[in-house]
Amino acid sequence: GEDVEQSLFLSVREGDSSVINCTYTDSSSTYLYWYKQEPGAGLQLLTYIFSNMDMKQDQRLTVLLNKKDKHLSLRIADTQTGDSAIYFCAETFTGGGNKLTFGTGTQLKVEL
Amino acid sequence: NAGVTQTPKFQVLKTGQSMTLQCAQDMNHEYMSWYRQDPGMGLRLIHYSVGAGITDQGEVPNGYNVSRSTTEDFPLRLLSAAPSQTSVYFCASREGLGGYTFGSGTRLTVV
User: Which among A45, A63, A67, A90 is placed 20 to 30 Å from A108, CA to CA?
Assistant: First the structure.
């Protein structure tokens, strides 16, 4: 079945770049997503990438997809304290309809 | 345009009680789903619906029922609450390609 894995924690200094990594097992992924969850809040869609793309950039966010290694990353440039949150990667896959499979989430802590 | 609205935001139930978590969206999305979020486990799909009158089970459906009589509403029912159902519940909707819109969540405690 589908499996999406992430490291649990990441700590960076304000102003540095953050890189959050995600690996997935399903080779039939169609879309891959990054969501942000602030404490006590719902999930906010940050960006998504179609599985036939290698990279997508949106302001401070860069998504890289390595299909061969089934590895997805989210880079946040010039990380700010407001970026502190839990970040989830998620995928949809061929044959799964609209089902969204989530990773366990990475807690990003930004220190001054 | 409110997006996805969930009510209530917080609820405490006694074991064995029943309740319905409400979810409504005003974007005319066909696809709606319910997830539960537990520490260290990400979000797991409970039930989903691809349109009015059509529902199906997700990864963790036991103990939950759903119905979809209209495009807008997708309530989640707990018939006999158990402590294992203590969690944060999220409703989400999607239309076609692209991202899913999530509600702000319902935090449920079963004692």
Answer: A67
